[in-house]
Amino acid sequence: MVSLTFIRPLSIVAALCAAVVLAGCASQVDPSATRDSLAEVTENPDPPQAAELYDAELHPDPIVEPRDCSPYLVITVRGTGEPSKGQLLSPVARSISQARPDQVDVLDLDYPADGEMSEGGTLGARMLVDTLNVQAEACDEQRFVLLGYSQGALVIGDALAAPDARIVGGTVGVVSESAVERVLAVVFYGDPRFVGGEPFNAGSYDPAVNGLLPRAQGSLDAFADRVRDYCVARDFICQSSSLDLDESGHVAYFDNGMQQDGAAFVINRLDPHDDDETGDSSDRRGPDAPDADPAR
Questions:
Q1: Residue 5: is it exposed, middle or buried by C-beta count within 10 angstroms (0-12/13-18/19+)?
Q2: Domain residues of the chain, as ranges?
Q3: CA distances from 130 to 1, 60, 253 (A)
Q4: Transmembrane region positions (predicted)?
Q5: Are the beta carbons of 220 and 179 closer than 8 angstroms?
Q6: What is the mean pLDDT of each run of 10 residues along the chain (296 residues)?
Q7: Helix H or strand E encompassing 152
Q8: pLDDT of residue 293
């Protein structure tokens, strides 16, 4: 069995997403080059080496170790090029943890999150599938919260979808029925596979416009009442209009309030806090959290 920390894939096909990191210190992004690299994912017919390396039928043993059986496991899956600290998802996970002190374990999925999505995304999908399945088997009561930004949203969405609906991780196995039932909430930001017509979307997006690599509508129907997919109109990753390739949109989530909205959406789905049950005035959405259903 291989630990989450040390596993790394062989890299072959340069592929993914915007080289975007933190607002205020984001790398310069060439929107046209980003679009071309994402298109390469579907245009290149050769499977990545990771497809065989992490094939669940060829290598059925999980590649992760069980974690502690906390009531809630929050898994963050970062965007392309994000550092280990200061990620978009860090404040979201922190707000959830603060809402349920000593009940939340936070795991930042240790996948490459680099430009070679076919390789790294396949590893990420296998790690996520195995983590959910291993934890569901080891921990009878634990439930899961999945947070993904950019490439991370793609990895989570593909891991939860049927293999034939994926663009990464088609060979890495499926999330077990027991684990599916334990998924409490899923929050995406700037998802390349965004579909404008889905009922769980939020933000200033145009519902007639999809992401750069949209998934088939209905691919996440099994999770529809548990998903919040945030997309802003200027984000060319989730809004692929050729007329508005504005890289600033893809980092807008750092300061537009949607981190707090996403945390509120999750916290409202947690079990009532002990103080809530005794009539205390604690807000289940957490401190300073706005309404969990922002207007478009």
A1: exposed
A2: 31-277
A3: 11, 10, 29
A4: none
A5: no
A6: 33 31 37 54 77 96 96 95 86 97 96 88 97 97 96 96 95 98 97 96 95 94 97 91 69 94 97 57 37 41
A7: helix 151-160
A8: 43
Per-residue 3-state assignment (H helix, E strand, C coil) for the chain:
CCCCCCCCCCCCCCCCCCCCCCCCCCCCCCHHHHHHHHHHHHHCCCCCHHHHHCCCCCCCCCCCCCCCCCCEEEEEECCCCCCCCCCCCHHHHHHHHHHCCCCEEEEECCCCCCCCHHHHHHHHHHHHHHHHHHHHHHCCCCEEEEEEECHHHHHHHHHHCCHHHCCCCCCCCCCCHHHHHHEEEEEEECCCCCCCCCCCEECCCCCCCCCCCCCCCCCCHHHHHHEEEECCCCECCCCCCCCCCEHHHHHHHHCCCHHHHHHHHHHCCCCCCHHHHCCCCCCCCCCCCCCCCCCC
pTM: 0.81
Q: Which pLDDT score, from 0 to 100, does residue 42 have?
A: 66
pLDDT of residue 240: 85
Q: What is the reported pLDDT for 260?
A: 97
User: At 196, phi and psi to the nearest 5?
Assistant: -60, -25
| pLDDT of 47 | 84
- Please measure the distance between the N-terminal and C-terminal CA atoms of the chain and give it in whole angstroms: 45
pLDDT for residue 194: 97
Q: DSSP 3-state assignment of 265?
A: helix
Strand order in the sheet with 104-108: 104-108, 72-77, 143-149, 183-189, 227-230, 201-202
